[in-house]
Amino acid sequence: xxxxxxxxxxxxxxxxxxxxxxxxxxxxxxxxxxxxxxxxxxxxxxxxxxxxxxxxxxxxxxxxxxxxxxxxxxxxxxxxxxxxxxxxxxxxxxxxxxxxxxxxxxxxxxxxxxxxxxxxxxxxxxxxxxxxxxxxxxxxxxxxxxxxxxxxxxxxxxxxxxxxxxxxxxxxxxxxxxxxxxxxxxxxxxxxxxxxxxxxxxxxxxxxxxxxxxxxxxxxxxxxxxxxxxxxxxxxxxxxxxxxxxxxxxx
Length: 251
What we know:
Blueprint: E1 8-11, H1 17-28, E2 32-37, H2 42-50, E3 54-59, H3 65-79, E4 84-87, H4 105-133, E5 136-141, H5 145-148, H6 154-174, E6 179-186, H7 201-210, H8 223-230, E7 241-244
């Protein structure tokens, strides 16, 4: 029996990359997984079902309250409850690193809207369903960039700093409602979307060398932390950010 048997998990941005890997692991552990993205989720859903898991896919823009509310309604209708939310969707691989003096307002606002406001909106949308279920677990995917401020990604770093701040605030506000809210801050991860992206080449070798564990990070490196934060193991943990980067940043 899996550790998430009988639970229903919603994960945003799970058509590919880190989100898809997380969705598959949650399904392996017995969860019903609602795979959401603005991209086609069919491959992730098919992979889960092909391995005997339970999943459905939804097209969801996390900056649309209407689409998020429809997501919650569809989840409860199909699976009866909503117990876990993983806020994974964000803009990263589509960015070209550049000095902050070259980032125009529209690009800055788009990154902040999706990466920070989207977490606010998605969390706000699922809380009523979690209350109906008697509690829940929320995991926000932040970024280790918050801790060291890499050049060329000031807007992304600011947005992920906001995710860490929101995690702390949500943890405070939901602590007495049996909803734990935590975050994972990954290091540079060689996800599907990042492979072949030459804009990040200057950071790759120095990042590996700066780690205590000197190798590239892959999405699977996040799964142990994810499972900790969405199972009863973390029932007395909330508002925290777990840095997972091979020891690049020592907090």
